[in-house]
Amino acid sequence: MLQALVQGEVWGFMLIFLRLAAVIQLIPGIGEQAVPQRARLMLALILTLVTLPLVRQFVPAIPNNPAGLMALAGAEIGTGLLISLCLRLILSTLNMAGSLIAIQSGLAFIQTIDPTQGTQGSLVANFISLVGLTAIFASDLYFLPIAAIHDSYTLFPPGHWPVPEDMLKTVLDTVAGSFRLGIQMAAPFIVFGVVFNTALGILARLIPAMQVSFIAQPAQIVLSFALLSILMGTITNMFLNYFGERLRTFLL
Length: 252
Known about the structure:
Layout: H1 2-26, H2 37-55, H3 66-105, E1 111-114, E2 119-122, H4 123-138, H5 143-155, H6 164-206, H7 212-247
Antiparallel strand pairs: 1-2
């Protein structure tokens, strides 16, 4: 009896750890490349210890064959990757909005490493991404991913792959919502770019001898920074509202 109990506890622990580890490896903020791998694994272990008593009733029995064992492990890893992928897609909203803002402000040529995406990005996009990520922790919204992990055991019980149609719909809705919000956050800068470039074209026609490009670049950067300083709070609030709204689809 003791041996069966120990085996059941170890099996349940490992099954839950697979899902949590898949989420923690890619979750925004914690799953960045700058965070040591051991730190992420330790956090996954701690969360597994906390989550195990709460979701013990969802853990299925140990399969009698290796194929069943691998199927259960794959389902848990796939579910964790689905949750973390949606979180990454939500965070990409800031990167897309920042890239559009950088193009309209004339700063798109300044490229730096984006710690949230692991690739090169414009300076403005990196700044907005870091501000949004900081705002998530400052506003206590980082509790929502943890709650989503817990509720995922009711929505996606262990041993059952997510329904492909539902999984695809969730990803597509997240992509569409992120793209729409990114355009909305950058909309004032798009309007500013159209008006500013139209005014420069008219000015160049009226005064052909004037070096319009020499005057336009500093003015475009200064006005864009002024507009960004005014709208930064609104942009952050829009992202936080969307972040909470999308994560609530994983909550009961």
